[in-house]
Amino acid sequence: MLKLSVRGNAQIRPLTIEKSAILRITTNPNYPGPLRGKSALLQDNVTTGPSNGFAMLLVRNVFNDHDLPTNNVLKIGPDLDYLSDGDVVRVGSDGRIKTIYRREARGVSLLVTERCNSFCVMCSQPPRDIDDDYLIDDYLEAIPLFDRSTREIGITGGEPTLLGERLFKLLRTLKAYLPDTAVHVLSNGRTARDLSLAEAFARVKHPDLMLGIPLYSDIPAIHDFVVQADGAYDETLRGIINLKRCGVRVEIRVVIHRPTYKRLPELARFIVRNLQFVDHVALMGLELMGFARSNLDELWIDPVDYQAELTEATRTMSRAGIRTSIYNHQLCLLDPRIRGFSVKSISDWKNEYMPECAGCQLMSQCGGFFSSAILRRSPHIRPQLAESH
Questions:
Q1: For residue 303, what are the domain limits?
Q2: How many other C-beta atoms can be found within 10 angstroms of the C-beta atom of residue 30?
Q3: 109-167-141 Cα angle (round to 5)
Q4: Does residue 115 sit in the same domain as residue 215?
Q5: Would the pTM count as exceeding 0.85?
Q6: 355: nearest Cα among 331, 373, 333, 328
Q7: How many domains does the chain have?
Q8: Among 93, 237, 309, 373, which one is least packed by beta carbons within 10 Å?
Q9: Considering only CA atoms, which of 107, 12, 86 is closest in space to residue 42?
């Protein structure tokens, strides 16, 4: 698991930045001069200072610093070995380096707020009522530094729509600087019960925008229990309908755990009958972080034990023409009839494989595990042969 926030050693020379600096990483000491003011030069061994104009020098190894002509020098350890050209970091005055963007990442995710109007029993990012508006400020400064070939950017929280106009400013900035990059916003959909919010998403006119909205059951009481909010089921459905009415693409997300797995087939039929206009349905395995970790005994179920329900739900929606995917599952646990729906969806910085996977010929195709799976995982994990896929 990669560490995205690490403190560098600023004792080599004191940092002169007052608050923080958003910088793009380069290993090229001959980087174009006009770009150096927003860049950090990353080197393995340095005996002389960086060329004039770089905002920061990041050094991996011990070196002689007597002749360095800058104070903004940080020695970084092996936790940041993954940093490379094109990555974007936030460097604090205390020397803490937070990685905002990795150019080679399988998926880029921007946490825009920790505030939320739901309290989901399995939330991997438990909500906090804090002032975190600085996050949007950081992203607005960082986005112009992102690589233009970035395939997709995820917006997550908390509940991003609680930011109001600040969220739409972020979306417009992404559209302006990364017009070919897909944007996927994770929202509970409840605030879109207000048609004006759905219309605001439509007015952005982003060429490749989708909202991922959870729907946990065809029964309101089950959904409301999962999100711990009375009336959430009706608000979510209204939100989905309003967004589609305004031409905004919508994905339905279903996290599978003990309270939700039994009615997966009924939920699939409900979606086919009433929400066939959605653009995608993702059936998702559980991440054992946050509240999911706290409620582990009440939520955990071995994926092997819900394969009948998962298979029926997947095939029901697929036969109806609804694009359907399975996220966060291991191929060896899936019914062979639905393995083709599996997607490698776990962010690479927290994606791992377990010792039981050794020798598996399908590892390159398998979704693997969240790093939190060390807490609990199926005893049925087995290496697979390529021809069994």
A1: 108-388
A2: 7
A3: 65
A4: yes
A5: yes
A6: 373
A7: 2
A8: 93
A9: 86
